[in-house]
Amino acid sequence: MAELRVCALYPDLMNIYADRGNLLMLQRRCEWRGIDFAVTAAGLGEAIDPDAHDLFYLGGGQDRDQRLCALDLVQTKRDALHAAADRGAIVLGVCGGYQLLGHRYELGDDEIPGLGLVDLHTVRSADGSRLIGNVAIEVRLDSGATGPPRVLAGFENHGGRTHLGAGEQPLGRVLKGHGNSGSSGTEGVRRGSVIGTYLHGPLLPKNAWFADWLIREACGLTELAPLDDALEAAAHAEALRAAGCR
After folding, report:
1. Is the separation of the CB atoms in 243 and 174 below 8 Å?
2. Cα(104)–Cα(111) distance, rounded to whole angstroms?
3. CA atoms within a 13 Å half-sphere pointing along the CA-CB vector of 46
4. Which residues are catalytic?
5. Per-residue pLDDT tens for 122-181?
6. Angstrom distance (rounded) from CA 95 to CA 158
7. Residue 135 φ/ψ, nearest 5 degrees
8. Each residue of 58-89: pLDDT tens digit?
9. Quick check: 159 and 62 in contact, CB under 8 A?
10. What's residue 65's pLDDT?
11. Domains of the chain and CATH, by start
């Protein structure tokens, strides 16, 4: 029987953007299909086994909590997360968690270190302004996909402007909203099994198709049994409407 093994990184500190809702969405959609689901929390000072989990999840937090977790990530978890990504485990960072996937987060004269899983850095706006609002992005997640792109919808609220290195690929193209920097026209990052995005509010209940993609990829499955997704489709349509796409 298939099983999805999730490692929730700092769920007590990095959880301000409905991150528990994202984990619950994965759990329910696994259970409805008869897929075993196990979640393990990894907090400050706790080492992680790169081979014991299929998906590593890092949510968003306040600046103080983000700083604490960033230092701990570098000291106790960075090598393991690099090893996990190298073997193809999903590493998903949302909002503050997305910023920590890169090299650093610059806050004026201060700097928060990152994991270096992807080539990006984030700079807090000099005037303190934030990029806030409903957002929709166009994505192609499967290599060689020839069909129409899919759309992810959510909410963004970030003071940081994230800049991707020349060799990195964004997660998607901004249809509505601000995205990584407010001017790049791109949102998030995707390098192999490492994915970062500013979309929350929460991300997965608004995009059930993306939750299923994560389950399928993390479990190494070619397909998933269909579900009655009338409510999920309505939630996705409402998120698109809120972003101005419908």
Report:
1. no
2. 7
3. 12
4. 95, 200
5. 999 888 899 999 999 999 998 666 678 999 999 999 999 999 999 999 999 999 999 999
6. 7
7. -145, 150
8. 998 888 889 999 999 999 999 999 999 999 99
9. no
10. 87
11. 3-243 (3.40.50.880)
Dump pLDDT digits (tens) for 169-225. Answer: 999 999 999 999 999 999 999 999 999 999 998 999 999 999 999 999 999 999 999
Residue 30 CB coordination number (10 Å): 22
From CA 23, how far away is CA 6, in angstroms rounded?
9
Owner of token pair 């106790």: 76
Tokens at 161, concatenated: 């402007």
What is the model's pLDDT at position 62? 81
Structure tokens given for 8: 């929730």
**Both tokens assigned to 242:** 């809120």
The string of DSSP codes covering the chain is --EEEEEEESTTTS-SSSHHHHHHHHHHHHHTTT-EEEEEEE-TT----TTS-SEEEE----HHHHHHHHHHIIIIIHHHHHHHHHTT-EEEEETHHHHTTSSEEEETTEEEE---SSSEEEEE-TT---EEEEEEEEE--STT--SPPEEEEEEEEESEEEEE-TT-B-SEEEEES-TTTSSSSEE-EEETTEEEE--BSSTTTT-HHHHHHHHHHHHT-S-------HHHHHHHHHHHHHHT--
In the structure encoding, which two tokens stand for residue 175, read together? 């249809």
